[in-house]
Amino acid sequence: MDLMRFARLFSGPRPVGLCALQHLDLLRAKRAGGREGPKWLRAVGLTQACSSSPSQLPLGQGNQKNRSSVRSDVSQLGPMAIQEEEEESFGTLSNKYSSRRMFRKSTAQLYNLRLRDQSVEEDEERDLEPKPWRGRKNTPYWYFFRCKHLIKEGKLAEALDLFERQMLKEERLQPLECNYTVLIGGCGRAGYLKKAFRLYNDMKKRDLEPSDATYTALFNVCAESPWKDSALQSALKLRQQLQARNFQLNLKTYHALLKMAAMCADLRMCLDVFKEIVQKGHAVTERTFSFLLMGCFQDKKTGFRYALQVWRQMLSLGLQPSQHGYNLLLGVARDCGLGDPEVASALLLRPREETVPLQPLAGGFRARRRARARVGDGMSVRLDVEALERQLFLEPSQVLEGPPEPQEARGPSKAQPEVETKTEPDGMMALTSLAPEPSPRGLETNLLTLGAVSPAVVSFGTVTTPADRLALMGGLEGFLGKMAEHGLRPNIKTLTLLAEVVEPGSPAESSLLTVLDVHQVEADVTFFNTLMRKKSKLGDLEGAKALLPLLAQRGILPNLKTFCNLAIGCHRPRDGLQLLADMKKSQMTPNTHIYSTLINAALKRLDYTYLIDILKDMRRNRVPVNEVVIRQLEFAAQYPPSFDRYKEKNTYLEKIDGFRAYYKQWLKVMPAEETPHPWQQFRTKPKGDQDAIAEADMHGGLEGR
């Protein structure tokens, strides 16, 4: 074949030479390159012409030539060459299907869930974005009065939302100091500590100067916070900042600081603040001493003696006590003790001149003129706070080292009778005398007065009960008489506190209803609940039930606390089950406290049948279980340490196995009570941030606790 014929094979409309060469390399071309042809043909760019040439031939001729050429080429290839080609192309067939789409089965429910999740995400993004305000343009003062009105109605959450969302985000107004102060004050009444200081920090970032009312509200929120430790730390830090700036506090702010010290710290810190008030030249009022009386609650052992000393110091300054002060005295008498009898006798039974240290008012003419102007408030002299502090925290060793009191100090005309201290079995009479035939009223004393105590009284005996401490204040009649001397009438809170401190079953307790009518005080359910609780604790269940008709006569409806107080006296199973049946008839569902009281009564008698009946009724009503109930039942399910069923028979514990089996099954079906966070109702964050805010608040609350 010459050169001209060879060139003719690769030219023209039907290049036969190219087709022949492609068929010779058919297998390698398909396995290596697919339909694109050999590499050297692709490099030349002639594969398209060859592939198109058979289609241009007639159908029969093209197919016959292709088949014959393929058969001849394959027959010419050896078996070894075919095997090598297969080994080289093994595992490459999936390249044809690499770009194929994969389809999975789906349902309409999955599609709806996907659309729902997508819509929720879009709504959250839309909520986070500030919306343009299309309403009328309001001023910061309008928002101030609006938030103040909402806070007075008890809608703190709405006031916070109005300020943060509408005023700041939507309307984008620049807030004023009054806007922050009114919200911090609302948080102070609710004890929302974290939000109050967050508003205070935001206020400082906007270069707004806090006022005296702002600091008063901040100290008040520390006093009202449910977590006293963290509140005390925040208040001390704020006080240090104010002292570093040499910021002068007014009397109201000092009162808020004194309230914080009384509720979060102790009486010593109250006296430190009180000393600072006196040193700054502020007028000490009856309200100041009321906060000192609140500080006496912190010392459960000696708080009553502290309260009497503070009270007599207030009277020595000429200050007129208030109704709130008398209520605080009754509260201290209910919760706190007198302390060491020798110290109390040395401080409360000595003459007035030794217990009221005073010093003249320091300062110039203007200071004395201001003091004379405040005589109407009872502040004409400045008391020596340090001397008062020394007397309050006097040690027993210091009392014994003191000089003995001369007998001439009591008057030469009076004979000093021989007196000794004696404690009667009931503990009611703490003052005794060995004088012959003493008058029944000769030993009566009222430590609320500034007058000298009777010479027959030398020392105190054992003062253990609230009734004993009320007797030191003159009893029921003497206490109400002192209130009448100052032009005060008891309110329902005063009479409720008196019902708590009078001796149970005494004539004074029975005369409380008469006092209620004499002073024309409208009774409430709390007053009658107090009387029922005292009778139930004495085991007088019938006497407690006898008060129920009195509630109906006065038009008072019993509440759950009424039935809880009745449950205290239900020691027998029939009484407790009858109480639950009566509540069902009254369409009232017992709460956890009522069941806990009944469980306690059954546990004291080791009546496991009664316990199972209580748990069954609790299960029927689906009342959630709290930690107190679980602790009581766990104690009931334990065997006593010395219990041996094989040694002797115990009638009280023979049914404990049945109770343990039922209690185990009962726990699996009962719901648990979840204690709500105290700040949950005040949160105003978007829905997407609720979980994060809840975790942050709970973490801060646990740290504070």
TrEMBL record:
<feature type="region of interest" description="Disordered">
    <location>
        <begin position="395"/>
        <end position="424"/>
    </location>
</feature>
<feature type="repeat" description="PPR">
    <location>
        <begin position="524"/>
        <end position="558"/>
    </location>
</feature>
<dbReference type="InterPro" id="IPR011990">
    <property type="entry name" value="TPR-like_helical_dom_sf"/>
</dbReference>
<keyword id="KW-0677">Repeat</keyword>
<dbReference type="InterPro" id="IPR002885">
    <property type="entry name" value="PPR_rpt"/>
</dbReference>
<feature type="domain" description="PROP1-like PPR">
    <location>
        <begin position="173"/>
        <end position="339"/>
    </location>
</feature>
<feature type="repeat" description="PPR">
    <location>
        <begin position="176"/>
        <end position="210"/>
    </location>
</feature>
<dbReference type="Pfam" id="PF17177">
    <property type="entry name" value="PPR_long"/>
</dbReference>
<feature type="compositionally biased region" description="Polar residues">
    <location>
        <begin position="51"/>
        <end position="75"/>
    </location>
</feature>
<dbReference type="InterPro" id="IPR033443">
    <property type="entry name" value="PROP1-like_PPR_dom"/>
</dbReference>
<protein>
    <submittedName>
        <fullName>PTCD1 protein</fullName>
    </submittedName>
</protein>
<dbReference type="GO" id="GO:0042780">
    <property type="term" value="P:tRNA 3'-end processing"/>
</dbReference>
<dbReference type="GO" id="GO:0000049">
    <property type="term" value="F:tRNA binding"/>
</dbReference>
<dbReference type="GO" id="GO:0005759">
    <property type="term" value="C:mitochondrial matrix"/>
</dbReference>
<feature type="region of interest" description="Disordered">
    <location>
        <begin position="51"/>
        <end position="76"/>
    </location>
</feature>
